[in-house]
Specification:
Layout (H helix, E strand, L loop, with lengths): L4 H17 L2 H10 L4 H8 L1 H20 L1 H10 L3 H13 L2 H15 L6 H20 L1 H15 L7 H18 L8 H7 L6 H26 L1 H7 L13 H16 L4 H17 L9 H18 L3 H9 L3 H12 L4 H9 L6 H13 L11 H8 L10 H21 L1
Helix pairs in contact: 1-4, 2-3, 4-5, 4-16, 6-9, 6-14, 6-15, 6-16, 7-8, 7-14, 8-9, 8-10, 8-12, 9-10, 9-21, 10-12, 10-22, 11-19, 12-22, 14-15, 16-21, 18-20, 19-20
Length: 419
C-alpha cells in the first residue's frame, strides 16, 4: 500500500508534537527568564495546548495539500466523544459535593488502617481511587485522586522526588486500575464490543492482576516516603470542608452516574451536563468554582490527539501486526508512551482473525504503558492540569515523569506477564 503525502506530513507533525510535549518544561522556564515574550512561552509551555496547536497546523497543511473540502471532511470524520466526555466527567467529579463525599469515605477508610491518617489517606489515594476508576471511569478517578493529593499533600511543598514518585504511581495505577470492568478504561472500551469482552472476562483475565499491581505500587511509594508524608502533612490532617446536605450530594452523584452510563452518547451526557450546570447555579451556596478551564484544556488536548492520531494508522497498524504476541506486549507498552493507548487498541480491533494471545498482549501492553508519559492515557492530562501548579516552573517534566513511572510500570509488566 502506497503512503500518501498527507500521511507522511501528518506523521512528521505528530512527531514534532510528541517532541513538543517533552519540551514544555523548557518553554515554561523561558517564560520566567524572558518576560518580554512570557505570553508566547507560557502558551507553548502548556502541555494541554500542545496537541491542539499542532492539530491546527495539520489542518492548515491538509488545506494546502488536499483542498478545503477534503480537509474539512477529514476533521468532521473524527470522533470527539471521548474529549467531550472527559471534560464533562472532570467538571462533575471535581464539584464540591462529590469531592466532599469521597474525602469523607477515604478518611473513614484511613481510620481502619494501621497507619497514621496522613500516610493512610495517601495510600488510599493511590490504591482505592484508581481501582474505583473501574466503576466511575478512569477520568473521574484521576480527577478525584489528583484533587485530594493536591489539597492535602502537594500544597504542603513536597520534595520533587515525592512529587514525581506520586505522579508516576498515580498515572500507572489509574491506567491499570480501570481494567476490572469492560467500560471504564479507554483502551478496553476500544475492543470490548468487537471482541465480546464483558466485566467477568476482564476481572478474571486482567482485573485481579491489575489490582495486585496497584496495591504493590501504592505500598512501595507510601513506605519509601512515609517520613516526609508525616512531616509535610502534619498541619493538613483535618480536612476543613463545609458540610454538604445529603440531598445535594445525592443529586450530584446521580448526575455522575448518569454521565457514566451514557458515556458513548454525547447528546445524552451533554444534556445532563447542561442540567447539572443549572443545578449548581441554583444551589451555588454548596458549590466551589467548577474546574471549567482545566476541563476545557484537557478536552482541547485530547481533541488534538484525535485529529493527529487519525492519520497515523499507516505506520502504527503494521507495527502491531508484524510481530509475535510475546514481543507485541513490550512493543505496545513502548508505543503507548508516544501515542494514546486507546489508539493502539482501536487499531488492533480493526484487524480480523487475531489470536487470543494477540488480544491479551495488545491490551495488557497498552494499559501497562499508560503512565509513561502525559499522552499515554486519556486521563493523564487531567492529572497534570490539576497538579502542575505545585511543580517547579508550574510544569511537569516529561522526563521526570518517565523516570518516576519506570518502577511501577515494571511491577505492572510482571503482574500481566507472570500471573
Amino acid at each position: 500500500m502506497t503512503t500518501s503525502l498527507p500521511e507522511i506530513v501528518a506523521a512528521l507533525i505528530f512527531g514534532i508534537a510528541v517532541l513538543h510535549t517533552f519540551s514544555t518544561k523548557l518553554f515554561s522556564h523561558l517564560a520566567h527568564v524572558q518576560p518580554r515574550h512570557a505570553g508566547l512561552w507560557h502558551l507553548l509551555g502548556e502541555v494541554e495546548v500542545v496537541f491542539g496547536f499542532w492539530a491546527f497546523i495539520l489542518i492548515l497543511a491538509l488545506f494546502w495539500l488536499t483542498g478545503q473540502t477534503a480537509a474539512v471532511d477529514y476533521l468532521e470524520s473524527r470522533n470527539f466523544t471521548e474529549p467531550m466526555f472527559v471534560f464533562v466527567i472532570m467538571v462533575i467529579a471535581a464539584s464540591r459535593p462529590i469531592l466532599n463525599t469521597i474525602i469523607g469515605l477515604i478518611n473513614g477508610l484511613a481510620r481502619l488502617l494501621p497507619l497514621s491518617p496522613a500516610v493512610g489517606v495517601y495510600f488510599l489515594c493511590l490504591s482505592a481511587l484508581p481501582l474505583l476508576g473501574s466503576f466511575i471511569t478512569e477520568p473521574a478517578a484521576m480527577t478525584l485522586a489528583a484533587l485530594m493529593l493536591r489539597d492535602r499533600y502537594f500544597s504542603q511543598r513536597l520534595s520533587p522526588r515525592l512529587q514525581y514518585a506520586t505522579l508516576g504511581v498515580l498515572f500507572v495505577n489509574i491506567s491499570i486500575g480501570g481494567t476490572l470492568t469492560h467500560f471504564a478504561a479507554p483502551p478496553v472500551l476500544m475492543v470490548a464490543a468487537t471482541w465480546a469482552w464483558d466485566t467477568a472476562f476482564m476481572f478474571t483475565t486482567f482485573g485481579w492482576k491489575a489490582a495486585l499491581a496497584v496495591m504493590v505500587n501504592a505500598l512501595v511509594v507510601t513506605f519509601l516516603f512515609r517520613q516526609e508524608l508525616q512531616e509535610k502533612t502534619a498541619e493538613a490532617r483535618q480536612d476543613h470542608t463545609t458540610a454538604t446536605p445529603i440531598t445535594v450530594a445525592g443529586i450530584h452523584l446521580v448526575f455522575l452516574v448518569g454521565v457514566v452510563l451514557f458515556a458513548h452518547h454525547p447528546a445524552m451526557f451533554m444534556g445532563l451536563f447542561l442540567l447539572f450546570l443549572g443545578y449548581t447555579e441554583a444551589y451555588k451556596q454548596y458549590q466551589s468554582p467548577l474546574i471549567l478551564r482545566e476541563g476545557l484544556l484537557v478536552a482541547f488536548f485530547l481533541a488534538g490527539l484525535v485529529v493527529l492520531g487519525g492519520l497515523q494508522q499507516w505506520w502504527l497498524q503494521p507495527s502491531l501486526t508484524s510481530v509475535e504476541p510475546s514481543v507485541l506486549f513490550y512493543l505496545a507498552t513502548g508505543l503507548t508512551a508516544i501515542t494514546d493507548n486507546a489508539a493502539l487498541t482501536y487499531l488492533a480491533s480493526l484487524v480480523e482473525g487475531v489470536s487470543d494471545e494477540f488480544k491479551y498482549a495488545i491490551v495488557a501492553g497498552a494499559v501497562t504503558g499508560g503512565g509513561l508519559s502525559i499522552i499515554a492515557n486519556a486521563p493523564n492530562p487531567a492529572g497534570v492540569a490539576i497538579l502542575k501548579s505545585h511543580f517547579a516552573d508550574e510544569s511537569v517534566s516529561p522526563l521526570g515523569l518517565l523516570a518516576a513511572a519506570m518502577l511501577p510500570t515494571l511491577v505492572a509488566m510482571l503482574a500481566f506477564l507472570l500471573l
